[in-house]
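Worked example

This section walks through a single chain of length 239. The input is the sequence exactly as stored; nothing has been trimmed or padded.
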Amino acid sequence: MTTRLPSTAPLILIIEDEVDIAEILDAYFQREGFRTLHCDNGQWGLQMLRQRRPDLVMLDIRMPGQNGIDVLQAIRAEGRTPVIMLTALTDDVNKLLSLRLGADDYISKPFNPAEVVARVHAVLRRSLAPSEAPEERLHLGKLVVDQGSHSAFVMDDDGTATQLPLTLTEFRLLAFLMRKPRRCMTRLELIEGCLPESDALDRVIDSHLSKLRRKLSDAGCGQLIETVRGVGYRLWPDR
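Given that input, the structure is written out below as tokens.
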């Protein structure tokens, strides 16, 4: 299902097998001026993602066949399209797994559609807003963060640049820490600085940073991010 809104309106892909829920989301999004697409399974959803390049994906976890976790992994293997997970599950394990795999937010069913719209606006603001310093680059050893292009990469000894496959939240956390290396940032500071519109908890930040650490380590940057027990995190370039 699509709308006739202007082509410049943000496009949201809804991957949800429950028709009633999909129709409610579609109606609320259209009322807020979004364009929408809907599909009821993960395989079709990935095809629509590649063909239409939506600005954001609403992704249900429990679907027949390819579940939402598998679809999220496929999305993250291909790019950084913002993803909000929809789940009827009440346990934190699946929510945290989604965040570790790169989801930008999650919403539990049953939900208030107006809250869903607000969360979508928040994620889109973070993903579509231009950087305050578009030409500014942050350097730390062989690690470079380009705030203008929202990209981070590692420079090899021969001058080759390898881009880090970061989610938007991971990029924001890394840039936030790099602006003040060696300074310890509390979890609250990280939430307010990188996820200001979210209701994220401390353990959500822990999950994002855990995955960011692993990506930095895999890229040959070692253990740049240090945990300060009982306080928070800091970037320690000499480790």
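What to look for: The chain has two domains: 11-128, 137-235.
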